[in-house]
Amino acid sequence: MAQLLTAIPIVDEHHVDRRRYPHGVAFIDGQYLPMSEAKISVLDWGFLHSDATYDTVHVWNGRFFRLDLHLDRFWGGVERLRMKLPHDREKIASILNNCVALSGHKSAYVEMICTRGSSPTFSRDPRQAENRFIAFAVPFGSVANKEQLERGLHVAISETVRIPPESVDPAIKNYHWLDLVKGLFDAYDMGAETALIVDTNGHIAEGPGFNVFVVRDGFLRTPAFGVLPGITRRTVFDLCAGTGLSATAADISRAEIKAADEVFITSTAGGIMPVTCIDGAAIANGQVGPVTRRLMDLYWQKHTDPQWSTAVEYP
Ligand SMILES: Cc1ncc(COP(=O)(O)O)c(C=O)c1O
User: Fold this and answer.
1) How far apart are CA 28 and CA 26, in angstroms?
2) Predicted confidence band at 27 (pLDDT cuts at 50, 70, 90)?
3) Whose CA is nearest to atom 4 of ligand 1?
4) What is the rounded distance in angstroms from the CA atom of residue 175 to the CA atom of residue 185?
5) I need a surface site. Which of 21, 130, 146, 287 has the fewest CB within 10 A?
6) pLDDT score recorded for residue 131
């Protein structure tokens, strides 16, 4: 017995985390902290059940891009999940600004998160949980690296089916990513760099953190069903409206995407990014196409337009 007792470890008073994190600043439980100190309880339902919603906006050269649209989508998700934010919209916008300003980043990836939180009694009733708001700003990151942006991404279509919208509403931006991560591993196994997964009808849906567009005979199309209504996807529609290009949301089959003139993906993490190879076969001549190039240029130009962007207030 005495031997057993000496083997029992002590309970430490504080958590020590020796992992390294990117430079940035987070806001959690009312405090601004370096990323290495930003922690949530293991009892938070956001962690235990993926019971959370979030949004990601980026800052480019000191300006938020389409912040209002990201806040609208975040608010919609929070309401539909029956959560309550502890701050109003103006305060949250100022917290996001502060995270970026305190980090010093001129180009940043800025996340706002609402988790179900936890209940003091570990109750199984989500109504008893105290919801938690978290925000952070870290360096800007992209789905595609510099080389991939120049020559186009190599993508594989996985057999994995995206969680049906009847189960989880994709318009509520969420962390239910096991299907997307499985798709990514399938893609790596097929020698590709990233993945597209399919909807419940076998049509192309989306990829890990991005929507997809095809261009055929000058017309653009993006999946309508079972996908997150991405802000970058919406931005492509807005850019098309301003330039006379025609874009619609409708089903895309595997055969159609492979027979496209151009394919590109869209995400806050990287913007508009070309795809030049699918399942080992080149899209058209395997070069980044003119419509994709034109939209990429316009997209980045809009980042200085005050109608589409707002300046971060640095100290
Ligand atoms: C599943 C999914 N689809 C699409 C997107 C692209 O959305 P947005 O353009 O708003 O970044 C994301 C972004 O994270 C995503 O997680």
Assistant:
1) 6
2) very high
3) 210
4) 17
5) 146
6) 97
For position 5, what pLDDT does the model report? 60
228 lines ligand 1 (CB under 6 A): yes
Q: What's the confidence (pLDDT) of residue 85?
A: 97
What strands, in cross-sheet order, belong to the sheet with 52-60?
31-34, 25-28, 130-139, 108-118, 52-60, 63-65, 309-311
CB of residue 292 inside a 6 A radius of ligand 1: no
Q: Using one digit for the tens of pLDDT, what is the confidence trace for 114-125?
A: 999 999 999 999
Asked if residue 266 has its Cβ within 6 Å of ligand 1, the reply is yes
Nearest CA to ligand 1 atom 8: 230
Q: How far apart are CA 35 and CA 135, in angstroms?
A: 10
**Residue 171 alpha carbon to ligand 1 centre in Å:** 10
Tokens of 240: 């098309």
Give me the pLDDT at residue 3, please: 58
- Threshold 0.85, pTM exceeds: yes
